[in-house]
Amino acid sequence: MRRTLRRPHRRRARVAAWALAGALTIPVGGTVGQAFRTAAPDPPGLFVEGPDRVAAGEPFELRLSADRPVTFELSLAGEERTLVDQAATVALSAPPGVHDATVVATDAAGAQATSVHAVEAVAVPEVRLEVPDRVPPGAPFVVTVVVDPSDAPLEGPTLREGDRTVPLHGPPGARWGLAGAPLQVEEARTELVADWRDGLGRPHEARVSVLRAALEREVQELNVPANVLAVATNEARAEQDRALDEARAAVVDPPRWTEPFLIPIEGRGSSGFGVPRRYAPGGRVSFHLGEDIAAETGTPIRATNVGVVRIAAYFGIAGYMTVLDHGAGVTSRYYHQSRIDVQVGQIVRRGDVIGAVGSTGLSTGPHLHWEMRIDEVPTDPLAWVGRVLP
Ligand SMILES: [Zn+2]
C-alpha cells in the first residue's frame, strides 16, 4: 500500500468531510515530497446501479460500489450525501422530472471518478371519487373522478358500479359518470371503484360508497284485468328486451344535453316511480320503473331533451314505444302511445313532439309511462326534471 499524502485539491470542502469521517490517514515526515513526485493516481473504478424511472416522492435505491474504499459524494435534485465505504446502498427520492444523480468517488490518494445516472421521476397522482353521501331510491347521481395533479400520466381510470362499467366524460382531472341507485326495500350501500395505473404501470384503486335510502312505499294493487295481462307473454317481453338491448348498445358516448330535462306531458301522476305493485291479486310484487302520467288520448308527448330516436315501434307490452338516446348512457322511454311521430335515427330537440298519449300494450287507460335509464339502471324520471347533470 502506498502511503502518500493526498495532493492539494481545489474542492476544499471535501477535506473537512474526509477528516470527519476518519477515513484519511495523514502520513508524517518527509513523505510529502515523494507524494508530489508520483504520477497522477489512477482513478477508482466506480459502479452505480439504479432504476431509470421511479415514482416521484417515493424512495428508491442507488447501489454504489468502487474497486477500493472511497468517499462517495452523491447529489440528486438538490439533495447531497457523503459516505465513506467501498460499497453502499442509498435510499433517495426525487420530485417529478428528469434529474441527474451525480456520484463522485474519491479514493485515499485523491484520485476521482465521476458517474452520472439520469433518473426520471414520474408524478403519481392522487385519485379520489366524489359522490353524494346519501341518495334517494332511484335517484341519478354524479360520480366525479378527481385526479390530482390532473396532468400526471396515468392509464384510466375506469369506474365500476357493481358489474357495470360507468362511462366517463369531461376533462382529464375531473372525469364524471352517471350512476343510478337501484331500487331496494332496505337501506344499503353501493360501492364505486375506480381502477387506474400510474405512469410506471402500477395498478391502483380508489373506492367510495354511497348510502342508498330505503324505499318506503306501500304495495299498490293494480287489479289489471286478465285480458289485458294476457299481452304480457314471455315472448312479448323477450322481443321488447331484445330491442331495448340493441338500442342501448347504440347509445353514443358524450352527453348531448346542455339544458335541463322536461316533463314530456302535462297531466296527472297516476303511479309514481319505484312504487311496488301487484298487477293482479296474489301476483308477484314488482317495482314500477317509470313515472305514469295520465292524460287524454292524443295529448302530445314531448322529448324530455335533445336526443336520437333509437326505437319507434309497436311492442306487445310497451305498446307504441319511443326510445331516445341522450348520450352518456342515458335514454328516455315512452310507452303506450296512440301514435308515434318520429323515425329511428332522427334527431329530436328538447320539447319536440314525438308522439301522443294512448293506452296501447299492457295498459288499462290512457297514460304515458315515462322512463329515464342510465344504461339499464332505471332512475326516477322526476329527479331529472329541471336539472342539468353533472
Ligand atoms: Zn307505468
Structure characteristics:
single chain, 390 residues, mainly beta, Immunoglobulin-like, Glucose Permease (Domain IIA), ten-stranded antiparallel beta sheet, six-stranded mixed beta sheet, 4 helices, 27 strands, 9% helix, disordered N terminus, binds zinc ion
The tally of domains stands at 3
Report the span from N to C terminus.
77 Å
Overall mean pLDDT stands at: 86
User: Which residues form runs of ≥5 with pLDDT under 50?
Assistant: 1-37
**Quaternary class:** single chain
Shape: elongated
* Structure ligands: zinc ion
The biggest sheet amounts to: 10 strands, antiparallel
Helix/strand/pairing category:
mainly beta
Question: Which fold name is given in CATH as the topology of the largest domain?
Answer: Glucose Permease (Domain IIA)
Amount of helix: under 10%
CATH architecture annotation of the largest domain: Distorted Sandwich
As a percent range, the share of strand residues is: over 45%
User: What is the overall number of helices?
Assistant: 4
The whole-angstrom Rg is 36 Å
User: How many DSSP E strands?
Assistant: 27
CATH superfamily of the largest domain: Glucose Permease (Domain IIA)
Question: Given this structure, which CATH class of the largest domain is correct?
Answer: Mainly Beta
Report on the architecture of this protein.
The chain is mainly beta and 390 residues long. The protein folds into three domains: 13-122, Immunoglobulins (Immunoglobulin-like, Sandwich); 126-212, Immunoglobulin-like, CATH 2.60.40; 220-383, Glucose Permease (Domain IIA) (Distorted Sandwich). 9% of the residues lie in helices and 46% in strands. It has four helices and 27 strands. It has helices at 13-21, 31-37, 226-229, 234-249, and strands at 46-49, 53-55, 60-76, 79-92, 97-107, 112-122, 126-130, 134-135, 140-148, 154-161, 164-166, 174-180, 188-198, 203-212, 220-221, 268-271, 276-278, 285-287, 291-294, 300-302, 307-315, 319-327, 330-340, 347-348, 353-357, 367-374, 377-379. The strands form five sheets. Strands 16, 19, 20, 21, 22, 23, 24, 25, 26 and 27 form a ten-stranded antiparallel sheet that branches. Strands 1, 2, 3, 4, 5 and 6 form a six-stranded mixed sheet that branches. Strand 26 and strand 27 form a beta hairpin. Residues 1-37 have low confidence and may be disordered. The structure holds zinc ion. Zinc ion binds at residues 271, 288, 290, 292, 369.
